[in-house]
Amino acid sequence: MYKTSYYDDFKCIGSECPNSCCVGWEIDLDIKTFQKYRDLHDSNINKCISVNQKPTYDKFAKIKNVKDQRCSFLDKNNLCNIQKKYSEKLLSPTCSNFPRRKVDFGSKQLSSCLLSCPEISRIFFADNEEFKIIDDEKKLVDTNLKIIPDEFRNNLYAVSGERVFNFLYKLYNSSDISLEKCLMITNQIINEFSNKKIEPHELNEVFKYIKSFFLNHKIEKKIDTEMQLNFLKKFFRCFLNKKINNKLSELINKLYADCFLNRDLKKIKLLYEKNKLHNFNQFLIKHPNIFKKFFIHEFFGKTQLLTNEDFDSNDGFYLIFFIALVSKLIIILNTLYKDKIVVEDFIEVISLVSRYYGGKDNLDKDEKELVSKDNQTFVNLFYLFFG
Ligand code: SF4
Description:
This protein is of the alpha+beta class and 387 residues long. It is 52% helix and 7% strand.
């Protein structure tokens, strides 16, 4: 097994959690957990669960939500009644596994956690260290992960995906390569790879060529605050149209009202630009790896995007980029009146955005339209992010 270096350090902070995973989601019960609950003959539990209309083995029933989308097993101190009254062993796999995620290759598994858990984001982003992967013996694996086990190594697409991941792992952990270059190289490699233009034996040569091409390529950067604010405004409207009720929608609602409704937009633009060029840049100087860590962490947690032909690796990459983009712009807008931006501001937003978008494999149609102008999704994301 390969896992992220923080994996074993995680401990749920329960009632201290600023955004409990037991609020805002409908939690599925598999048939085994459902039966265990029935066997308790506890009317307080029975009234909290309902069988799905089309029950399946994994999604046989669900736990009902009560007011404010709280799980009905949650007490007023945000502690789980099942755990309190019975045992942790009675939790459903959905509850006991969260926030852990696994990419399963049979005899090989890749384990990481979801950044939507604020405690995971806190552990992961709290230091400036690079992203680290360890093996079963807790030894650091800094290069050449053998992700695809022997029994599947005749699948050339999967083996090529493994090489792509290893290349990206090294690239994003190189302290002398900027995020801009990393993203351009990633985009080019994923394009070539997903078009299946490269034979597996040619991969190393192609990687080398693409890397050296983009390292020598001059990037034209243009500050474009207006474009970012227009994007944010459209994104906020699109998100609020979904009529979702969670902490991200609360934050977006507040920012939309504070910054875009009946406001002096010129003043907001000035404040935003000042915050971006001063406070946010200061924040990045203090945490130079923070977005590189985010990207490579997500590639690791979703390695299937690179190794499984059924997934569109371009779409997967755009989704990860979209989460980074939306998080960055919201952080700037959310800190307009602060003296400085700290890592807690970053963690708060990235975990909220990851909570909604992190579990998906690609963007919803509405969001896709926001960034796919002229069929140039990567270019649009890139200029919005660095603008
Ligand atoms: S989100 Fe994370 S820290 Fe918060 S309650 Fe869930 S598992 Fe615990």
